Amino acid sequence: MTKRWQQGATHRKSLAAALALSCALVLSGCSNLPFDMPNLPFELPQLPQLPELPFDLPDPSSLPNPFAALGVSTSVEEARAAKASEKTSTLTSDDLVQAGILTVGLQTNQISAPFIVEGTGRSIYGIDVDFASAVADELGLAVRFVEVTDIDDPLATGVCDIVLDAAPARTKTAAIVGGYYETGVAFFSKEASHVATVDELQGKTVALQDGSVSQGALNRTTISMEQRPYTNLNESFEALVAGEVDYVLCDAYPGAYLAAAYDGADFAGLLTSPSMVGIAAPVDKANLQLALKDAIASVSDGGAMDIIRSTWINGMPTLTETDVIANVPIREDAPPLDEWGTVQDGSNAGSNAVIITQSMVDEANARAEAESYTDYSYTEDNSYTEDYSYSEDTETYSDDVVA
């Protein structure tokens, strides 16, 4: 009896659902359905002609999102477009190389991952691309990227409005506005994430690049470590996770980027004090400098920079003096270390190179697609798709970044 009642209840529920669906579809005027409607035990009544309303129905697009309370919002692309549309640029053609567009210089000849990552089809990603795009949104401008080989000349000759990765030691005539990341030489290890002590470092093996800024910084100290040079940072981190070395020494951000790719690697403290890197702008463009300052603050305070950090350096927080290894002994004859971290002894052979493997390219492309990043892929005429254009003004990409 109970089973028959359950079957009858199930039948009644199914019939009720079918009736409700049928009525709804009839009322809405739907036709050409991809399935056959069930046969009903009665004829649906003829619906009367609805009278004309004495007022106009509101435009549905103007109504509030009914799912907002449930945490359901628009897509990332829609949200970004809406945010950009909220901004009205105060900058004129006198302030910009091209009206309505922020032209951004990328130093692709010397800046590598995670700031600039070249993907398949010469598409580009990275902290610099995401940060510049967020700043342009705050300014109410479109963004265009051009390739530059230094800071001062492109700004002085009107090639671009700003150049990223700018520090006082790297420019003579430009104004440095704000800051969006910190540079500093850092240790990475397989131990639990903590700031190492000098005693923990003494006598240990360290992977680094011969002639690099990081090696120069270590050689300024009296810390005794067995240095094992590797061609690039990828090989250094591979040696670390394989247990062949105790530490990797490199610039903090490339290290954090690779530490996320090589399981078991953690930040272990800064060997040098962190210095802020910002945006370079023409010294005579006061309006642009003020607007950039406000935009950078909005990107940082509004959480956009936290998202960028999470994407590219596994959420590593802003580096401060509390992250510096305490009481590092410096040699009495040590050469000075400038704000960019370069050892001024004439022996610096360049910065740390990161080899972009195919798996990293695939991961970057997948990440960009999953998070609805704007596609910056090149077309045959060397211009980006959508609103982002690219100009081949200078040299090609540096060989330090190998796809």
Structure description:
This protein is α/β, with parallel strands linked by helices and 403 residues long. The protein has a domain at 76-182 and 275-315 and 356-391: 3-Layer(aba) Sandwich (D-Maltodextrin-Binding Protein, domain 2). Helices cover 31% and strands 15% of the residues. It is built from 11 helices and 13 strands. It has helices spanning 2-28, 76-86, 127-139, 152-156, 198-201, 213-219, 233-241, 252-261, 286-301, 304-312, 358-370; strands at 101-106, 117-118, 124-125, 142-147, 162-166, 175-183, 185-189, 205-208, 226-229, 247-251, 266-270, 275-281, 390-391. The strands form 3 sheets. Strands 6-12-5-1-4-13 form a 6-stranded mixed beta sheet. Helix 3 (127-139) crosses helix 9 (286-301) and helix 3 packs antiparallel against helix 10. It is globular. It starts with a helix and ends in a 12-residue tail after the last strand. Residues 1-31, 57-77, 343-352 and 372-403 have low confidence and may be disordered.
Main traits of this protein?
403 residues, alpha/beta, D-Maltodextrin-Binding Protein, domain 2, 6-stranded mixed sheet, 5-stranded mixed sheet, 11 helices, disordered C terminus
Secondary structure layout plus pairing:
Layout: H1 2-28, H2 76-86, E1 101-106, E2 117-118, E3 124-125, H3 127-139, E4 142-147, H4 152-156, E5 162-166, E6 175-183, E7 185-189, H5 198-201, E8 205-208, H6 213-219, E9 226-229, H7 233-241, E10 247-251, H8 252-261, E11 266-270, E12 275-281, H9 286-301, H10 304-312, H11 358-370, E13 390-391
Parallel strand pairs: 1-4, 1-5, 4-13, 8-9, 8-10
Antiparallel strand pairs: 2-3, 5-12, 6-12, 7-10, 7-11
Helix pairs in contact: 3-9, 3-10
